[in-house]
Amino acid sequence: RENPLARPTSRGGNHPLWVLGHIAVVEGMIPHAVFGEANPVQHWWPLFGTGSQPTDDPGAYPPFEEVLATYRDLRKENVGRLEEVGEAGLEQPPKVIPPGFEDRMKTIGRTYHLIALHQMFHLGQVADARRAAGKGPFV
């Protein structure tokens, strides 16, 4: 929160605000991929979607607290939807598989697993940004 634009390395990298927005837009893709519904944060795709580049201009982004609240709301909704799918539904195919993800998103279970791995990957970048900003580790 105190330094959301801290870069993880001296050569740049994804700052925490971009990472948070990125995992939010990907979290918003779950209803689209799994259930065929619209991504409620599709309008953020130019800022945070695949291929976007982080900027050091804080005015280019929504406020940190808004992005965080949106991510938390989407995550809570998606965990609830996963519970509705249940164990038996995990082997069902998602409704919309993005091009290039056909092998990794063959089932709803694999789709949710991929999202979890994706978040872990990007949280490593946040951990590095924290260290670059002079903060200690998360744990």
Low-confidence stretches: none
- Cα(first) to Cα(last) distance is 17 Å
Per DSSP E runs of 2 or more residues, the count of β-strands stands at: 0
Strand residues, percent: under 5%
Global mean pLDDT: 91
The quaternary structure here is single chain
Which bin fits the share of residues in helices?
40-55%
The shape is elongated
**Class from helix and strand fractions:** mainly alpha
Helix/strand order: HHHH
Structural key phrases:
139 residues, mainly alpha, 4 helices
Question: What is this entry, summarized?
Answer:
By secondary structure, the chain is mostly helical. The protein is built from 4 helices and no strands.
Structural description of this entry:
It contains 4 helices and no strands. With 139 residues, the protein is an all-alpha fold. Helix 1 (16-35) runs parallel beside helix 3 (64-89) and helix 1 packs antiparallel against helix 4. The longest helix has 26 residues, at 64-89. It is elongated, with a radius of gyration of 16 Å.
Task: Compile the SSE list and pairings.
Elements: H1 16-35, H2 45-48, H3 64-89, H4 108-132
Helix pairs in contact: 1-3, 1-4
